[in-house]
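[Q] Does anyone have a clean C-alpha cell version of this?
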Amino acid sequence: MRKEQFKKPLTSILFIVSLAGASLAGAQPQDYIVPRTTDGQPDLQGVWTNDTITPMERPASLEGRAFLTDDEIAAMEENLAQRRTDADNNIEVTVGGNIGGYNQVWLDSGDTVLSTGQTSLIVDPPNGRAPLRESAAAVRDYYFAHVEDHYIYHTVWDRCLTRGVPGSMLPAGYNNAYRFIQTPDTFTIVHEMIHDVRVIHLNKDKHIDDKVKLFMGDSVAHWEGDTLVVETANYNDRGMIASSSAGARLKGVPVTENLHVVERFTRVSEGTVIWSATITDPEIYTQPFTISMPLTRDDEYVMYEYACHEGNYAIPNILSAGRAGEQQAQR
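[A] Here you go.
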C-alpha cells in the first residue's frame, strides 16, 4: 500500500514555498487544522518515517525535472521490486562477497519514491545537486582511500558515534524512524539509527559559548506560525553531512566549524510533516543548499535499540586488513 499521497497542486505549492525558504504553514490544505498540545503548541508528536528510494541528488537522466510523473513513479517502483526479488532469488555466498545485508529481510530502505514525487531530496539549487567544492570532494576521496590506515578516516556512522545534523534526518538502508516528543520548553527527536537523542530547547535565545564544539551542534528553536524553526551552530569539524549510501556523492564529505543549518518542521496533514534543512558551510559548498522531504506518520512502527557498537566488526576488520597488508609487503 502506498503512503499517503499529496494531490497536486498542493505538491507544487509546498515546494515552491520550501524553495523560497519560508514557512510552510500557508501551504496546508484549507480544511486542515493543525492539532495543538495541551500548552497550545502545534502538535508534531508521534513516530515518523522517511524510508524512500528518492536519491539525495537529482540523476543526470532527470536533469531539469523537479517532479516525476505518476507513470514514471509506478515504473521505478515496479522495476525496483523486481530487481530486489531477482537478487534475493539468486543469492550466492562467496569468499569476499557481501556478508552483510545479503537480502531484503535485513534491510528497510523503502520501496517507494517520496509521496511528493520529487526527483531528489535536494530542492535548491534548482538543479537538485549540492554545490560541492572540488577541494571538499578531494578530502572525501582521500579519507576513503585511507580507511585501512586509521579509524579517523571512517565516517562517524561507521564508527557508531552519530550521523550528526542534518545527517541523522536523512534516509538510510534501515532504521528510518523518528519519535518526536514535546514539552512546553523542549522539542526532542529520538532517532532509531544509532539511538541518538536530540533535545532542542525552545526557551533559548542564543547559542552556547562559541568555544564549545559538538558533533550535532547546538540548536536554538522557535515557532514561526505553525512551523518549528531550528537553527544549529557550534559544530566541531569531525562530522559529515551524509554518512549513508543515500548520500551517494555526498557520503563522507567533511564539515567545518562554520557549518550552519536551519531546519523547518511543518505539519501539513494528519499523517505528514514537511521537513527541510538549509545547509551553509562556505569552505565545503560554493553556496547554501536545501534538502526537503515529507515525513510520514506510522503509529504501528516499533522502534528498537540499535546496538551499533556491539555489532561493529567492520572497523577492526578493515584496520586489521590494513596491518596484514603492511606485513605482507614487508616479506
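[Q] Thanks! Anything notable?
[A] The chain has a mean pLDDT of 88.
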